[in-house]
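Session log. Operator J.P. requested a structure for one protein chain; no other inputs attached. Running the standard single-chain path with token output.
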Amino acid sequence: MTGPIHDLDGLLAAFGVTSIQDLAWAIDEAADIDDGRSVTIDDRGPDETFLVVDTVGIAITFPTDVTTVLRLAAEAEKELRQQHVSVYPGHEWSGVIIHVPHASRLIPAEVRDQILLNDAALERELDAMTDAFTDFIAQRIADTTLHRPWIVVNELSRLVIDPERSPDAREEMNAVGMGAVYTRTSDGSPLRDDDELEADELIRTYFDPYATALTDLVDERLAKVGSALIIDLHSYPLVANPYELHTDGPRPEICIGTDPFHTPESLVEIVREGLGGFDVGLDSPFAGCYVPLKHYGASHGVRAFMVELRRDLYVDDSGALVEAAVTPIAEALAQLISMLDLEPLTTCRGMGNFMGDAHFDEPAP
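Structure written below.
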């Protein structure tokens, strides 16, 4: 059937099935919904038919057609993927994305049940592991740039999943139980049981949708602007945490993390100059930056660098934010972003497109 579909019976006929269950399966297959997700049809009577992907439902408005129904399924899946990630729109011609992966302290109840710490110990661990106020700083930066950058914020604590750690054996932080799913705390104590099935479920539920949502945004920027620059925003303490693998180097006010392929030397020089009012170091105590995995080391279409702010720059001894101290940080980074966003071809010539999931080098605190 290629004409308008006026009711649920017509929808069944259009997909060549006779039951609602088979219709859901057919839509799942035709829309290429991710494996492990569940598509259902919620028929509540005339004019109340919903297409549901896991927990996200969208009303089917008749008359409709097959193309529209498949588009609704894709929209429901996209919304599901983005439930734990916030994307704050930037200027339509900005190719800059500020990525804030570790600012949240939120842990869903079902994940809290997996964590072995009591409430007091969990609060201490969150104090140690959260990149405090980096989401606020990202917004302050964006407020003062010439072309507002796009911002992606992980709305869940890194103790749920760490979107910047590789979910396989390549991740060096697996050595201390702090890969994509942490099993150890910052001081090496047990955080959760080392349960492979539980970890796989966390990856499917939280990690994979997060990576896809960020990739979707990057793809949109590439289609619109033709290039993308990911700035990975973190913070770290003055005194090293016990889990850190590289503690013998300097701990400057601002650490810039780089990648040999995706952070060209010309970009490094501009970043150093733009942040010249601070004590700036390179790749110490943390190195690397977030780059889409499919094009890691293969595409010049993505530039990236990491910004690690030493927390004593902007918080007091009690851990409270000192807003006045944020101003020079935000202004310096905003001016840097404005310059980079206006001159993408100066800092990286011949960029192509890129897309994919995430590559992770940086063992962030």
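Operator note: Confidence is low (pLDDT under 50) at residues 345-365.
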